[in-house]
Inverse folding.
């Protein structure tokens, strides 16, 4: 095994952020099931909901109408993003008292690398505790913290005792902890993968550990390699202060469900045009094209294709999208959302291993010279 | 059909079957495992149409017969039962009852007729040739790690196998490094055209074979068949043009460095701590009787280590992906290795010292 210098990573996750802010700003909402979303009779989805609302089975990304059926007495509040941004700014100010290495994931979540910190506090747990206290003082909101030696574990830790929790996973505890962890709790293992894993008898970390890296790659594609590492507590991803773009995409929710393939095609064509423009500005292209389709019943599928050469032109994107559409029920089932994205981006920041010389092309060059 | 079997014996085989059955569409015949009870043995078959698996285990049969059963749930049930003898009984040709000896626990699973199960590809005995399991498994270990997982280069997603003169040759490459082994066997190997074997069947062989005795192999049309111990596995081959590997195996590399494998391997592991995460680039300099390994300079810091070696040639520095060095070192089975090269931007070769029947070719990276 390799050994890496031990880092100290904190993951801070605000508890029911939007809903808590609404409750703070309007004390009448305290203790009530608050659902931040558009009106329940619209097509909007839930942004966040308070812990009281979660008891009814409501969760984010659920259609507001569905949330209403689960909890008609719920208080539906439209989002006030400027409020959330302000609170987020205050929290980040607190973070930056300790470190500049902050990676925001969204308004309410961030990783901090405090291996070296401005206050020379050796215990990351102590820092996390201070941050939590100061957030509470400054914003009257609670946060959950996770402390560990990499991002993956810190993220799992913060989720461990929500709300208002603080969990430390030491290198010593990590391995038994991960072995015992239900597979669905692994960050990065989604619902589908969880189902797939359970089907083949992977219920906890220890079951996952029985698989070789290649087996996981074969079963789950490239993520397999990630699963192989994280179940062993290995996650070398640095806390990245500037978000490196890994994908470029657009999606669109329709005001009514669409069945007609031509209509979908027109919308995709427009999206592809917008992507082309963005790609040109960023001087990049992508080798993987992904089409996302959400059907009227909220079932959503993605279909992707990996190409040998990066694409960026609208026409090329559309050609791929056409083929991907054939692998979905576009034109057969009513659709509420369509999206197109590009990953495996090329360009300086994006590509891996471009320094690596190629065995075969090199030999061809040699032959030509000879 | 009715038979009895010890839990742990059948569990092992059914869990292998579960790795093979199609997990994509539940409740199709391909998600089922075929059971055939006859002559006090149970034949278990599973397939996803690409890979086929067949094994035989001894069971106590009360009534011969055959059927298919949903492998996923079957496995779940067997796994959940306490250790001991389990009775399996098919009733009315539509259900299987699974119960423990004390009859306290019983499950019923719906079955699908055995005749709906796809015929596993088979070849006649005469098509098989035989090799030592152990030597063949070594060949797999020497090559499989080098294959590509880039689906756009699907023809490198498997290990190439061919017969060259009297040798059996296996080659794995991802286009940047290549592993070759060409092994002479005592047994006579018939001629067959070069094939690309998917890693799954090779890994299954590595996982399931005892390493004792022989393995039988047949290559017919676009499939490979293997038999060993009590198991039979078949797999369709990857249909594609494998790159001309012979052209990239360097000949006559003048510069020879002899290094202790352990020393180099340990040094690489240490220096890799500070190698850049993505590129995995390190610098390797050969200079007189020492090799200097260095990480790239970064904001984090740098690593540097000297390893003694035997070398008489010009000072040369390479940039290399350290995993391309560590992986071959893991499988080289001599204490010393040979590091051969011509110049810094050309492929280097790693092999054992004394030389054996395998070698690993690694293309360097650009220096800066």
């Amino acid at each position: 095994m390799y050994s890496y210098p031990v880092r100290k990573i904190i993951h801070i996750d605000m508890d029911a952020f939007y809903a808590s802010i609404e409750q703070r700003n309007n004390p009448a909402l305290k203790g009530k099931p608050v659902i931040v979303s558009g009106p329940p009779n619209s097509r909007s989805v839930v942004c966040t909901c308070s812990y009281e609302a979660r008891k009814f089975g409501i969760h984010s990304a659920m259609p507001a109408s569905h949330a209403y059926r689960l909890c008609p007495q719920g208080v539906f509040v439209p989002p006030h993003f400027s409020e959330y941004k302000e609170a987020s700014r205050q929290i980040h100010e607190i973070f930056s008292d300790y470190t500049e290495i902050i990676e925001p994931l969204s308004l309410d979540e961030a990783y901090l690398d405090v291996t070296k910190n401005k206050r020379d506090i050796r215990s990351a747990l102590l820092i996390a505790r201070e941050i939590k206290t100061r957030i509470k003082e400054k914003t009257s909101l609670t946060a959950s913290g996770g402390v560990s030696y990499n991002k993956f574990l810190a993220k799992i830790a913060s989720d461990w005792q929500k709300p208002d929790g603080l969990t430390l996973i030491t290198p010593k505890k990590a391995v038994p902890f991960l072995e015992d962890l239900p597979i669905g709790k692994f960050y990065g293992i989604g619902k589908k993968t969880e189902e797939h894993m359970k089907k083949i008898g992977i219920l906890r970390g220890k079951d996952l550990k029985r698989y070789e890296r290649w087996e996981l790659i074969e079963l789950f594609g490239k993520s397999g390699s990630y699963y192989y590492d994280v179940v062993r507590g290995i996650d070398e991803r640095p806390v990245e202060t500037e978000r490196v773009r890994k994908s470029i995409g657009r999606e669109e929710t329709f005001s009514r469900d669409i069945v007609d393939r031509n209509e979908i095609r027109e919308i995709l064509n427009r999206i592809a045009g917008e992507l082309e423009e963005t790609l040109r500005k960023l001087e990049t292209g992508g080798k993987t094209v992904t089409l996302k389709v959400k059907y009227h019943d909220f079932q959503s599928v993605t279909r992707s294709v990996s190409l040998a050469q990066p694409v960026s032109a609208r026409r090329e994107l559309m050609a791929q999208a056409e083929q991907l559409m054939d692998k979905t029920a576009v034109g057969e089932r009513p659709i509420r959302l369509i999206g197109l994205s590009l990953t495996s981006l090329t360009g300086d920041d994006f590509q891996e291993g471009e320094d690596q010389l190629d065995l075969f092309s090199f030999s061809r060059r040699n032959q030509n010279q000879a | 059909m009715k038979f009895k079997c010890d839990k742990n014996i059948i569990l092992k085989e059914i869990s292998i079957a579960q790795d093979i059955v199609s997990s994509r569409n539940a409740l199709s015949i391909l998600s089922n495992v075929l059971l055939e009870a006859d002559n006090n043995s149970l034949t278990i078959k599973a397939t996803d149409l690409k890979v086929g698996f067949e094994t035989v285990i001894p069971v106590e049969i009360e009534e011969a017969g055959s059927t298919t059963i949903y492998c996923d749930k079957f496995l779940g049930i067997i796994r959940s039962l306490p250790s001991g003898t389990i009775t399996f009984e098919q009733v009315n040709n539509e259900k299987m009852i699974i119960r423990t000896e004390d009859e306290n626990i019983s499950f019923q699973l719906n079955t699908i007729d055995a005749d709906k199960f796809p015929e596993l590809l088979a070849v006649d005995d005469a098509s098989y040739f035989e090799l030592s399991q152990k030597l063949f498994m070594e060949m797999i270990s020497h090559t499989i790690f080098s294959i590509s997982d880039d689906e756009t280069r699907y023809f490198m997603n498997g290990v190439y196998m061919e017969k060259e003169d009297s040798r059996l040759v296996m080659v794995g490459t991802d286009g940047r490094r290549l592993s070759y082994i060409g092994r002479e066997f005592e047994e006579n190997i018939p001629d067959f055209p070069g094939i690309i074997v998917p890693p799954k069947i090779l890994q299954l062989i590595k996982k399931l074979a005892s390493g004792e005795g022989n393995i039988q192999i047949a290559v017919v049309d676009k499939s490979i068949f293997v038999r060993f111990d009590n198991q039979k596995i078949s797999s369709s081959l990857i249909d594609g043009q494998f790159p001309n590997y012979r052209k990239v195996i360097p000949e006559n590399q003048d510069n020879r460095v002899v290094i202790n494998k352990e020393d180099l391997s340990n040094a690489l592991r240490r220096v890799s701590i500070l190698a850049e995460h993505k590129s995995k680039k390190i610098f390797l300099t050969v200079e007189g009787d020492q090799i200097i390994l260095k990480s790239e300079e970064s904001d984090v810091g740098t690593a540097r280590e000297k390893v003694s070696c035997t070398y008489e040639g010009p000072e040369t520095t390479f940039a290399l992906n350290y995993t391309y060095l560590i992986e071959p070192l893991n499988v080289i089975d001599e204490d010393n290795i040979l590091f051969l090269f011509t110049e810094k931007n050309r492929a280097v070769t790693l092999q054992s010292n004394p030389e054996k029947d395998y070698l690993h070719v690694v293309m360097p990276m650009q220096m800066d």
Notes: The first strand of chain A starts at residue 9 and ends at 14. Residues 348-353, 362-370 of chain A have pLDDT under 50 and may be disordered. Residues 150 and 235 of chain A are 6 Å apart (CA to CA).
